[in-house]
């Protein structure tokens, strides 16, 4: 049995959770805060990051490593990546763009956009310079046909659905303009499409419940 460790507020936790649900792999969940210094956490995720998973063979960290493992270890469940090597690589290419070139760049804004903090003007200027270039590059690869990689749901959608809205919302809050939409990436219909999937609805409901618990604990 796999144990998924992390917090339902994490988009990368939900990337893995959606993949597990879509593939129909049995799993349990364990609440672990990010950047924990507990030895049992560091032994599984040396940077203390979430998510990570526990398997009968041992632990694995980093969301894409985990999703790739699930695809390889459970070949008889619904596939989240094409069998053709080139098409599979194109899916992974999209994931790199979503995770590294969009979300990781926009993540520098999250403290101010979502958590009541403040981001320096230098950081805002750097993100405003880099992110539009990356969005234009992503737009060349993404098909939205209706899914990111084409006409089939793939692991690229596990990444895209949890992260594209964050990029759009964070830039809207900080700059007064959704930089994704400004560069022609109409992510809202896409997010709605994926959000209508039963497993995505489960992920969203669990995330909302965790968010409400967090707010209640702070008040």
Overview of this structure, please?
The protein has 219 residues and is of the alpha+beta class. The chain has two domains: 2-73, Glutaredoxin; 85-218, Up-down Bundle (Glutathione S-transferase Yfyf (Class Pi), Chain A, domain 2), CATH 1.20.1050.10. The chain is 60% helix and 8% strand. It has helices spanning 11-23, 39-42, 63-73, 85-106, 110-114, 121-141, 155-175, 179-182, 187-195, 198-218, and strands at residues 2-6, 27-31, 52-55, 58-61. A four-stranded mixed beta sheet has the order 2-1-3-4, with helices on one face. Strand 3 (52-55) and strand 4 (58-61) form a beta hairpin. Helix 1 packs antiparallel against helix 7 (155-175), helix 1 (11-23) packs antiparallel against helix 10 and helix 4 (85-106) packs antiparallel against helix 6 (121-141). The radius of gyration is 17 Å and the shape is globular. The termini are far apart. The mean pLDDT is 97.
